[in-house]
Design brief:
Largest sheet: 2 strands, antiparallel
Organism: Streptomyces thermogriseus
Strand order of the largest sheet: 1-2
Structural class: mainly alpha
Distance between the termini: 9 Å
Strand content: under 5%
Radius of gyration: 18 Å
Domain ER-bound oxygenase mpaB/mpaB'/Rubber oxygenase catalytic: 3-234
Number of helices: 15
Order of helices and strands: HHHHHEEHHHHHHHHHH
Helix content: 55-70%
Number of strands: 2
Protein name: Oxygenase MpaB family protein
């Protein structure tokens, strides 16, 4: 399931949705803000995240294990400080890693299904279960990671009381709507990127809209926009889309053969 789903172009919108969702956990977003150059290197951060997902999906087992070890090593060195209590805490704390993981998987699954990627409930559950491998790679015990949609929903129900749109979350919101860009690229940002960010935000669950305090279109309208966007993006030839660096899918096909090409219709096999 992962192999075929992660080759879909709607993964980019799903990734932005995940950022919006992740920012609602105060301790998690504080760790990002205090330990990264997010404001000045947001594009680099997005590409590194995409590179990690691409490597763990389409790379060799050795590549995936190395990528996971690198992430664990970096996270193990990082700390953040609660400004109210002065508490110092680790960024590789299991509860923070689990939040980041679940926000990502929920976003990938939600956006792809809602935009028209064909998945039965059983296939969606299988995808969630497969992602316990990626959770292990970043340092989580797979036994504590949701194994299906019901467990994922239960996790969000338990975690919702901890969520809030603090100053850091609002900074992420403002940043995603208008990231820094070269003056010549500002028109493209306003025309294209802003629509991506708005659609990603609109696809969040209602409680996230309430926390951010910014309204979203009616769910039916959001679903129509997701389906239209998915239809348009999937019209772009996959071989053309996959030319973007680091070309993980093309490398995997060269290694394993053209029959391994990711495609929605293969998800049910």
């Amino acid at each position: 399931m992962t192999w075929n789903m992660h080759g879909d172009p709607m993964m980019w919108i799903a990734g932005v949705r995940a950022l919006y969702l992740q920012a609602l956990h105060p301790r998690a977003v504080r760790g990002v803000m205090q330990n990264s150059d997010f404001r000045r290197d947001a594009w680099g951060r997005l590409l590194r995240t995409a590179g990690f997902v691409g490597t763990t999906t389409y790379g060799t087992t050795e590549d995936a294990e190395k990528a996971g070890a690198r992430v664990r090593r970096i996270h193990g060195m990082l700390r953040a400080t609660d400004p109210e209590t002065g508490e110092r805490y680790r960024l590789d704390a299991p509860e923070l890693l689990l939040w980041v993981h679940c926000a990502e998987i929920d976003s990938y699954l939600h956006v792809l299904r809602r935009s028209g990627f064909p998945l039965t409930d059983a296939q969606a559950d299988r995808y969630v279960a497969e992602q316990r491998t990626s959770a292990r790679l970043v340092g989580l015990d797979p036994a504590v990671v949701p194994a299906d949609r019901a467990e994922l929903a239960a996790y969000f129900d338990r975690t919702r009381p901890e969520l809030a749109a603090g100053a850091e979350a609002r900074e992420v919101d403002a940043f995603l709507l208008r990231p820094p860009a070269h003056p010549l690229l500002v028109p493209a940002r306003e025309l294209l990127w802003r629509r991506v960010a708005q659609l990603a935000y609109a696809s969040l669950p209602p409680y996230a809209h309430e926390l951010y305090g910014r309204p979203a279109p009616a769910p039916a309208a959001v679903t129509r926009r997701l389906r239209l966007t998915g239809t348009l993006l999937r019209c772009v030839p996959a071989r053309l889309r996959w030319q973007l660096p680091p070309k993980n899918i093309l490398k995997a096909m060269a290694r394993l053969g053209p029959g391994t090409r990711p495609a929605p219709y293969k998800a049910g096999r």
